[in-house]
Input
Amino acid sequence: MRPSKAGKWGTYQIQPGKSKVFRLEDAIQVMFKRVANEVWIATTDLSKKQPDLKPLIPEQTETPEQPEQGLIEVTDEQIEASKQKWMRWALKSGNANLKIVPAFPNLPVVIQPEYSFRLMRGSSARFYTRIPVFIQVRDMDERDLLITEIPSHNLARTWFGTFTDGEICYWFKTTARRELTEDVYRPYLCVCPITIINESEEELYVDKVSIRGEQLTVFGDGKSLWSDEMTIKYKGGKDFSDLIVTGVPPQEAPNATLLNKPRNPVNMGLARRTFRKLHDLHSKIG
Output
């Protein structure tokens, strides 16, 4: 299987009258257009097979060593042919120094292990899951001001908890694996190493897990996106757990560099609902 390639995360300037494209293969294509002091942004969903869709960036070759690409300049003819619906932002500085970085979704994400399992009291288990990132666009001339953020993948919503005590979460059809293999790496998915420790006096059945990405850092090593390592300590009772994150790259990616800080940088001692059966209340994002 050939590796999927991602646009290179970083800071770029868009000159007046120019148009550029950022692409995450198999997921999304984001187009940027500069008009006076405005930045225009449009997106194309690349996950759906559309016969009339012609990506503005050529398809990746079979060469594994093909370097990452940043914002690729495209012509006015290519932009017009794409027939996109644009959103417009007028910037204060007018320089269009934009930072494009990955971020975890703005709601918890519910995932499911590849196979459900049980943890006896006092035992632990380590596994890996993948969460689709949001693409954040920030104005570097305005102290890293967030302009917009775009989901790289369409996510469903679900209710997590009981009917009287729960919350809205995203639902992503993925698996939580005990081992890493090459096929898990995708440019729009962040690999999250998770350790669950059962500190309760009862057996813990792990069927579905709520991952709170707001506390996780995003790192990149050129091959994949990574979160810092997360430890979930199950206390029993009403399914509440303590969550601890390290704030540094996991041992599987020691050379990964920081791409984006957590939305809510709290690293330990947070008792949250993590394990719970789901009700079948799913709805697509509008």
